[in-house]
Amino acid sequence: MPELNPNLQSLGNQNLAKIAPSAIRAFDEEISAIPGIIKLTLGEPDFSVPEHVKQAAIRGIENNDSHYGPSKGKLALRQAISSYLEDTRSVHYDPETEVIVTDGATEAITAALIGLLNPGDKVLVPTPVFSLYFTNIEMAGGEVVMIDTSADGFLLTPERLEAEIAKEGPKVKAIVLNYPCNPTGRTYTKAELEALAKVLKKHGILAITDEIYSELTYDQEHYSLATLIPDQVLLISGLSKSHAMTGYRLGYLAGPAGLLRQVAKAHSFMVTCVDNIAQDAAIEALTNGRDDSKLFREAYRRRRDLMVAGLTKLGFKMAVPQGAFYIFAKIPDQFGTDDFAFAKDVAKRAKVGLIPGSVFGAGSEGYVRLSYAASDENIKQVLQNLQQYVADLS
């Protein structure tokens, strides 16, 4: 193993050095070595990709679709994305200039923030929320302004939004909204989004909306902020959750061409082009597989209800998820508020893997996130293990 040349010891991006690695991944790796553990840690659907979507990928391989494609993605896929968004959001995005295919929604978020932020720009982020937004804003030189929504049912209110904009001043350039939300599963009604849109319109602030879980809502239809203020929204989504295509790494961005020019530049420097075979599969999913997610959604609804009922009996408190596939549960009072200590003890004693709530930002302390993108058998076993754990320590 080569030893690093001493003259190179000082190399390293100082801004990046201040940013901690993903706490979710780190905790998952830490507990993965525990024998017999059942992990509800990652947002990984346990379903297989629909057969007709897999066959489209196979045809792409057989047709030798193995050469460089357009940086923004295949035109046929951008057209399919545009058609899908017009049908579901009532907004027309020009496939030529207003849609970019990305290497998953993660790269879409990264490209958007790097392409649009300047050093010192402030970005509002309602929390609890997926911690990737914090790190990517900081990597782009921006400043994260967390808005703790725990006192309002984990939803941002227009009054709170107005107050934060007034408090932070003209440096506020954007807000990141993830709905349905990871980790809480909460989402917004049309009326709630209309109220937020009114404030954003008044102040001319960009909304970056991560709608990756939009096909997995249970009690209401998904409604998009882009429908209300399309000139101020950069919409991010993908096929990882709706079609269980996490490993295909297929996401996309849609928004006004004036925004996407800079974002496309950042994207092209990070990713020459997205995998052609994944794009072949995505074209099939968006043209002939729009109903595929309905089967997944009903399974998730059943698992949500099973977990909510089981955890409630054990003393956990939670806002019932309206979408996605996570439960964000408050630890029973007798176990205190140290969510890291609790999650580690549960992993060790109960053989159950949870994610400590604190990694999701302000308002997350004393909670744990459980993913119910797992088999019914595993969920039932987890509830049995937790029941025994609570009984043993009560």
TrEMBL record:
GO biological process, one term: amino acid metabolic process
SUPFAM superfamilies with a match to the protein in the record: PLP-dependent transferases (SSF53383)
This enzyme's EC code(s): 2.6.1.-
Species classification: Bacteria, Bacillati, Bacillota, Bacilli, Lactobacillales
Family: Belongs to the class-I pyridoxal-phosphate-dependent aminotransferase family.
Domain Aminotransferase class I/classII large: 37-385
Cofactor(s) the record lists: pyridoxal 5'-phosphate
Protein name: Aminotransferase
InterPro entries xref list: Aminotransferase_I/II_large, AspAT/PAT-like, NHTrfase_class1_PyrdxlP-BS, PyrdxlP-dep_Trfase, PyrdxlP-dep_Trfase_major, PyrdxlP-dep_Trfase_small
A GO molecular-function annotation: pyridoxal phosphate binding
Keyword Transferase: yes
PANTHER family: AMINOTRANSFERASE, ASPARTATE AMINOTRANSFERASE
Pfam family, one: Aminotran_1_2
Keywords: Aminotransferase, Pyridoxal phosphate, Transferase
Top-level division of the source organism's lineage: Bacteria
Top enzyme class: transferase
